[in-house]
Design goal:
By secondary structure, this protein is mainly beta. It has two domains: 229 residues, Sandwich (Jelly Rolls), CATH 2.60.120.10; 68 residues, Jelly Rolls (Sandwich), CATH 2.60.120.10. Helices cover 14% and strands 39% of the residues. Strands 1, 6, 16, 17, 18, 19, 20 and 21 form an eight-stranded antiparallel sheet that branches. The chain has a six-stranded antiparallel sheet with strand order 2-3-7-14-9-12. A three-stranded antiparallel sheet has the order 11-10-13, with no helix packed on it. The longest helix has 10 residues.
Length: 317
């Protein structure tokens, strides 16, 4: 019988990461930092396991293989479609860009990467990179890379709690220091770094850059063009953060109870940003609290979330 599945995250320690996910979101790890907590992932380089119930201890991939891909979707796709993370940036991330599907499949046998960020918290003065300056051409940017003047060509924006940023493939971007966010993205890990503040990794060497690939895929879109892609499959409303060809993401503030449904076309991914409560399905209750992630199988039907909490619910289109 289909039922809510609680997922155990996969942690990533990266040079720019912090420890807020340990101290504020009850993430348990011996890593020096938790830069990324992969809350929904079915990848060889990062795999959820299942907590509780008959599938306790199995990998998420094993669960899908046991139950059949219909728990994901009845649509014709050949791989798990999404990757969802918490990201804690104690320091600046590298300036980077992701390819579209055509470029990713041709050059790395991987989907491209369109993503979105929901800002959970941001320290005073926090900024992020969101595209290039409007008058910066690709040739201008290439010259800036060669001359080590990249920062002069970047479009910096101020960040506050509750902001949403949609990052279509091809958009240059970087999370700035002091930002904690939730990221919903295509299931891809292709990142082309173009600038890394001249930092070195644990081995004492500069981290690898991918300038040629980056220059091949950069598209400097306007705000209107980005918004058109962000809401390409439905009209913006009070709860919807994005609704594009790859995912639909809604945020709900629940005080009491709210009913949802997972149809045959898509699973629901529940990510609890704050508060606590329980999921009720088939007369059973599943506790959910700040930092928890649940996978609701496709075609499970109606379920209720009760309590006082803030949820991000993601699904494919």
């Amino acid at each position: 019988m289909l039922k809510p599945i609680k997922l155990v995250p996969e942690f990533k320690e990266i040079i720019w990461g912090g420890n807020r996910l340990k101290t504020e979101y009850n993430k348990k790890s011996t890593l020096n930092n938790i830069a990324e907590s992969w809350e929904l992932t079915c990848r060889d380089d990062g795999m959820n396991t299942i907590s509780g119930g008959e599938y306790d201890g199995l990998t998420f991939k094993q669960f899908i293989e046991n139950e059949g891909f219909s728990v994901v979707t009845n649509q014709s796709i050949d791989r798990f479609p999404l990757l969802i993370k918490f990201i804690d940036a104690e320091d600046n991330l590298s300036v980077q860009v992701h390819p579209d599907d055509d470029y990713g499949l041709k050059n790395a046998n991987s989907l491209g990467k369109t993503e979105m960020w929901y800002i959970i918290d941001a320290k005073p003065g926090a900024k992020l990179v969101y595209g290039l300056k409007s008058d910066c051409t690709i040739d201008d940017f290439k010259l800036a890379i060669e001359n080590n003047t990249v920062e002069s060509k970047l479009n910096y924006v101020d960040v506050k709690k509750g902001d949403v940023f949609f990052i279509p493939s091809g958009l240059v971007h970087a999370i700035g220091a002091g930002i904690l966010l939730a990221e919903i993205q295509q299931n891809s890990n292709i990142t082309y770094r173009v600038y890394d503040y001249n930092r070195v990794g644990k081995d004492g060497k500069p981290r690898e850059l991918h300038v040629n690939d980056a220059l091949n895929v950069i598209v400097n879109r306007t705000s209107d063009e980005i918004e058109k892609i962000r809401f390409s499959t439905s009209v913006k409303n009070d709860t919807t953060l994005a609704s594009c060809e790859y995912f639909t993401v809604d945020k709900f503030r629940i005080d009491g109870g709210c009913q949802f449904s997972a149809n045959a076309e898509s699973f629901n991914s529940l990510l609890c940003l704050d508060g606590e409560g329980f999921i009720e399905y088939n007369n059973e209750k599943y506790d959910i609290t700040k930092g928890d992630s649940y996978f609701i199988p496709a075609n499970m039907g109606a379920y209720t979330v009760n309590g006082n909490l803030v949820l991000i619910i993601s699904k494919i289109k």
